[in-house]
Amino acid sequence: MVRRGPGSGVLVAISRTGFGILEPVYIEVDDLSREAVHGLLAEHLADMHATSPPESVHALDLPGLRDPSVTVWTLWDEETVLGTVALRELSPAEGEIKSMRTAAEARGRGVATRLLAHLVDEARARGYVRLSLETGIEDFFAPARRLYTEQGFTECPPFGDYGNDPNSIFFTLSL
User: Fold this and answer.
1) Fewer CB within 10 Å, N- or C-terminus of the chain?
2) What is the DSSP code (8-state) at residue 105?
């Protein structure tokens, strides 16, 4: 199915909180050209900087997300971006989750769960054997940590270029 916008979309369904109704949404590879996506990513970076010390902010900015080793997906409801996630290739066998973000008005609707499932499927399709991520230890990050552990991720030591950081926790999933 082709969607309006820069990428071709995949029709998926997520639940509206409290109603049990499935609504059609689209996940697509994003070229990072739309202002709505820029706004969501700017909110993400602002929250990271407001929550963690500067040396512990590992979020990618727009130039970082445009690196050829990174693929970004966005999830849309009609013309509204509800979430984003990125996959950075660390090696031909390993990937890293970056820029997982759900728009404030879409929280509790399964956006992050659906984006994570899409990313894990893509990592498997690429032949990765491991998928890893870094997130914060602050209470702000508790929903993210819960999501990752519910989806089978386990704590691990720092990976890739990360070092020990008292404000970070690392997770991995064998694929």
Assistant:
1) N
2) G
Angle 164-166-170 (CA atoms, 0-180°, nearest 5)? 60
DSSP designation for 139: G
Quick one: tokens of 128?
Answer: 């990765």
Q: What are phi and psi of 144, to 5 degrees?
A: -65, -45
Cα separation, 58 vs 99, whole angstroms: 10
CB 76 within 8 A of CB 28: yes
- Round to whole Å and give the CA distance between 57 and 20: 36
Q: What is the pLDDT of residues 43-70, one digit of tens each?
A: 999 888 888 988 889 999 999 999 999 9
Give the DSSP letter of residue 16: P
